[in-house]
Amino acid sequence: MVKPAGPFKTPPSRRLPPPAAPASGGAGSLGPGASAGPEAAVPTTLDGQGSPAAPTRTADDPGLRASARSGIPAFEVMRITDEIARRRAAGRDVVSLCAGEPGARPAPGTLKPAGYTGPLGTGPLREAIAGHYRSWYGVEVDPGTVAVTTGSSGAFQLVFLAAFDPGDRVALASPGYPAYRNILAALGVQVVEIPTGPETRYQPTPALLDAAVRAHGPLAGIVIASPANPTGTMLGRPELEALVEWCHINRARLISDEIYHGITFPEPGEPDPRGVSVRELDTEAIVINSFSKYWGMTGWRLGWALLPTSLVAPFEALASNFALSPPAPAQELALSAFTDESYAQRDAVVKGFARARALILEAEPQLDWGIAAPSDGAFYYYSELGPQLERFPDSVAYARALLEGADVAVVPGVDFDPVAGGRAVRLSYAAGEAAVAEALERIIRFQR
């Protein structure tokens, strides 16, 4: 049998040693008029067939260093997720209240062969998303302004690239989702963190934005989330209207992360039980959403953005180069997300989140923690540790000890708030009622 040619490895006996450094002025030295640039200073070897091999570089060669823009913190939640997997593989019974991942929506039995779609998604899916806004919010959306993306993460990257230039200032509430901060920083945008607390329900206000402008200069944009990660707090219609007006007056882009819409726990008679979409108030605002949370399609990596008309062409140009098209099989599956049956199934899942949330709220006295954010929506409980900080130096140490001593995984607040997050933790009750009940029992026992 004839083996195909290459790739070849040179046997040790045939490898040639690196050439000795030439003597000054001797054969192989630089001739008249030649210059010893950086490439000449890098030694080379032969690949065994007489051709120069790739230059050998040293560890301190700047050419081997990562970019400055990549020097952002890793997402702690995903690191902890890996640690949980390792411990479970080793036989540990770990209860995870870590990742914000609801129960997965089943895939259809057979997916059709799929090729590229348009860079902004298929026409039928863009029309279905527009219909979703008509059904839930009573607002008309032009399907031509809907951009389907590779998860909401893909939407944020493309929106930030289309809307902001390096050096622009963009405000974010803190505590908040760390990927906003890190994506913006990697793109060279100046992040202005706005500390929030119980007095504003952990949401930004026009007064806080005015203070940020006085301290840092004009803002090119603001990113809001309602319900928010990690706090679960929401902006009511009056609060959202005030932020829309502030952005109009200050000529700042408003970007609204609405990925947790539909996962809400309203009081009876509340006028906006699923949340208020900023698209109801302002067609110039940008909305970002996803199939990951309410529909439980995290691994399918499919999201969308509602764009102002002026950003559609720039966004499409970026999308066609960065991703070519969103994943076609995920778009096929997502078409079935907007049926009455699908809504009913997912609303039943949300009722399960509500029961898990109630368990945490009922256990607050036994937890003996500190001030907690109102968990209006999403599936997160964000709380200061209060008296527990007398035993542990910070939330990182607490979370590590809890995982080691009780096999319960929670997320330290430093992921969401680099300043005050060392005093807080986030629990995700997306794991469901049974997992939350078991975790609470273990936490309370651990703290005794």
TrEMBL record:
Region feature (Disordered): 1-67
Pfam families: Aminotran_1_2 (PF00155)
Aminotransferase class I/classII large domain sequence ranges: 115-443
InterPro entries hit by this protein: Aminotransferase_I/II_large, AspAT/PAT-like, NHTrfase_class1_PyrdxlP-BS, PyrdxlP-dep_Trfase, PyrdxlP-dep_Trfase_major
Enzyme Commission identifier(s): 2.6.1.-
Keywords carried by this UniProt record: Aminotransferase, Pyridoxal phosphate, Transferase
Cited Gene3D superfamilies: Type I PLP-dependent aspartate aminotransferase-like (Major domain)
Superkingdom of origin: Bacteria
Coiled coil: none
An MF annotation (GO) of this entry: transaminase activity
Residue spans of biased composition, Low complexity class: 32-41
Keyword Transferase in record: yes
Residue stretches spanning the membrane: none
Required co-factors: pyridoxal 5'-phosphate
UniProt keyword Transferase present: yes
Family label: Belongs to the class-I pyridoxal-phosphate-dependent aminotransferase family.
Name of the featured protein: Aminotransferase
